[in-house]
Specification:
The structure holds 2 protein chains of 2 kinds. Helix content of chain A is 73%, strand content 3%. Chain A is an all-alpha fold. Chain A has a single domain, classed as ABC transporter involved in vitamin B12 uptake, BtuC (Orthogonal Bundle). In chain A, a hairpin with a 2-residue loop joins strand 1 and strand 2. The longest helix of chain A has 31 residues. In chain B, helix 11 packs across helix 12. By secondary structure, chain B is mostly helical. The chains are: A mainly alpha, B mainly alpha. Chains A and B meet through helix 4, helix 9 and helix 11 of A and helix 6, helix 11 and helix 13 of B.
Chain lengths: 292, 320
């Protein structure tokens, strides 16, 4: 039981990171129906930015987090403007292949300049651990929880209460109708990329600190898993991404703890396939009828 | 029937194929094509089989599969394991057949539930399946886990491989011209309309998917018996993308385009071998640029056709 609770805590911290990345997927998919394969690589760039600013500029945690989010947000907008915007009207497969191409470019450009060596971080957070009854929570885990919760609240406020948030919801409901109502669809889409990528940047920094490692290809697998989380929760739904991320994180941690670590990735894909077969719209997804 | 099979176009094709085969064979025998170039040619041939079979699924039937490497892995491991026990051509044949059986079953299991999904969901589901196949291979005893298989006998020879390539292309092109092939094209054009016209969409999608998987497994089997060693990391998501890149570059829906693109990319890769890191950046950038400026691929749906060539010539003669 104690071990189970401990694994649950570990699973929650991994799941929070997936949830942050999944939010970007879900928002982008909700608005332009594109699986942004490059999203996992934005997360990787977040981890590298954190490495740079903490190692060479000696920044503390919060300023570094802010820089990561800004850098990644800008990167996201650039990707959208350069690669995806010309393809707004193209078939989905075309856009998907473009996303894969963008992902390759980011991964291997980073690898070209940084090499394949694993980068480690200076100690910017204390290594205290709290005992809460039978379970222990490390400082970084607390940071992950709090950052995730704060960002989640911020995001909900932006989407529900601000003008641009309303525009985002409008574009995702019906692009053409939104255009007719005087909403700048291009700017709204760019803004969605900005927010989603900023969240991925934060997640990248947190995961980098959590595992104390950054590598050029680190974004690939977590990116896919976060996408699975988004699908599980119902793509396009913000609470869905949170629940999905936490679920995937916990499932993966429990498989490692009680099964075999070799199957940790397989379980995620198995969940994906089950969800797609049983309820393709996910937990919180809306069922949309296809019109001819 | 006999007249159809022995038509002028078919005879010319057979002649050209035979000539190509003999030229390369003689050059290999004479040592003009050394083992370095030989391995490039063999890789191109494996890629041709993989690309035409993926084109059948993606280009003709419009089902976006990102799991082709999984089926290739099944074929590779089946042949690898069997030929290690029976190191002769009979063993290879047995291995190929076992690979066919397993990959066909796997393709059925994958396709029947997932082909109900559309577009990008399907892509992710097939990707997931391929990864599961790879992870299973990585954890099984018989496949020797992550270390992989070593000392597989080298049984893939040029005549055998060339034969396999020709068979694959013939199977795919003839499938496209058959009634099920037409149904697949209809599904690609508009799935709902095809369904309304009475096409059993699931049946034909599964058919295309299984044929594609079997051919991928054939390529895998021959691949295993050429390169001696196998390990699960050869069959990651990146391998599936590599094959997809060939199909997209050539033009989705055209078999000749896939063949030409496989040859072109094979040669390009040979040249880019010196700078491995840049290779992937160029790949990625080329994919993006291609999709923005020429999404239908270099050749689009244009097919190399001797029949048309003959017809045009005849027309020209008549005019003159």
């Amino acid at each position: 039981m104690e071990q189970f609770l401990q694994q649950l805590i570990n699973g929650l911290s991994l799941g929070s990171i997936y949830a942050l990345v999944a939010l970007g997927y879900t928002m982008v998919y909700g608005i332009i129906k594109l699986i942004n394969f490059a999203h996992g690589d934005v997360y990787m760039i977040g981890a590298y930015t954190a490495f740079f600013v903490t190692t060479y500029l000696g920044m503390g945690f919060l300023p570094a987090l802010l820089v990561c989010m800004i850098v990644c947000g800008i990167l996201g907008v650039l990707i959208e403007r350069i690669a995806y915007k010309p393809l707004r009207k193209a078939p989905r497969i075309t856009a998907l292949i473009t996303a894969i191409g963008v992902s390759y470019v980011i991964e291997y450009t980073t690898q070209f300049f940084m090499g394949t060596t694993t980068r480690t971080y200076p100690a910017i957070l204390p290594t205290t651990t709290w005992q809460l009854g039978p379970v222990s929570i490390s400082y970084i885990q607390m940071v992950i929880f709090s950052v995730t919760i704060v960002l989640m609240i911020l995001l909900t406020l932006i989407v529900q209460k601000t003008k641009i948030g309303r525009a985002m919801r409008a574009v995702s409901a019906d692009e053409n109708a939104a255009k007719l109502m005087g909403i700048s669809v291009d700017n709204t889409i760019s803004f969605t990329f900005l927010i989603g990528s900023a969240l991925a940047g934060a997640a990248g920094m947190l995961v980098g600190l959590y595992y104390n490692a950054a590598t050029p290809l680190m974004g690939m697998v977590p990116g896919l898993k976060a996408f699975v989380a988004a699908v599980f929760g119902g793509i396009g739904s913000i609470p869905g991404a949170l629940v999905g991320g936490l679920f995937i994180g916990i499932a993966e941690t429990l498989v490692v703890a009680y099964g075999s670590s070799l199957y940790r990735d397989a379980i995620v894909y198995a969940i994906l396939i089950l969800v797609l077969i049983i309820k393709p719209t996910g937990l919180f997804g809306k069922n949309e009828r296809e019109k001819v | 029937m006999a007249k159809q099979v022995l038509s002028k176009a078919n005879m010319i094709w057979s002649g050209l194929i035979l000539a190509l085969f003999l030229i390369v064979w003689v050059l290999m025998g004479a040592g003009i094509i050394n083992s370095y170039y030989e391995s490039t040619i063999f890789t191109i041939c494996f890629n041709i089989i993989l690309a035409v079979s993926l084109n059948l699924i993606v280009g003709i039937c419009g089902q976006f599969s990102l799991g082709h490497a999984g089926f290739m892995a099944i074929g590779a491991y089946s042949a690898g394991i069997v030929t290690k026990m029976i190191p002769n051509l009979g063993g290879l044949l047995l291995g190929i057949l076992i690979g066919f059986a397993i990959s066909a079953i796997a393709a059925l299991i994958v396709s029947i539930p997932t082909l109900r999904l559309r577009g990008d969901y399907l892509a992710i589901a097939t990707l997931g399946f391929a990864e599961i196949i790879r992870i299973c291979i990585q954890n099984m005893k018989i496949t020797n886990g992550a270390a992989g298989l070593m000392g597989i006998p080298k049984l893939t020879t040029w005549p055998l491989l060339f034969f396999a390539v020709v068979i694959s292309i013939v199977v795919c092109t003839n499938f496209v011209r058959s009634a099920p092939g037409r149904a697949c094209i209809a599904i690609n054009d508009d799935e709902i309309a095809a369904e309304a016209m009475g096409v059993n969409t699931t049946k034909y999608k599964v058919m295309a998917f299984v044929i594609g998987a079997i051919l991928a497994s054939l390529a895998g089997s021959l691949f295993a018996n050429y390169f001696y060693v196998l390990n699960p990391n050869q069959f990651t998501f990146n391998k599936s993308i590599d094959i997809l890149v060939i199909v997209v570059f050539g033009g989705m829906g055209s078999m000749s385009a896939s063949v030409i693109a496989a040859i072109a990319i094979g040669l390009l890769n040979m040249w880019l071998q010196q700078f491995t890191d840049l290779r992937m950046i160029i790949y990625g950038a080329a994919l993006v640029l291609m999709m923005i400026f020429r999404p239908q691929g270099i050749l689009g749906t244009w097919e190399l056709s001797i029949e048309r060539f003959l017809k045009n010539r005849k027309l020209k003669k008549e005019r003159a």
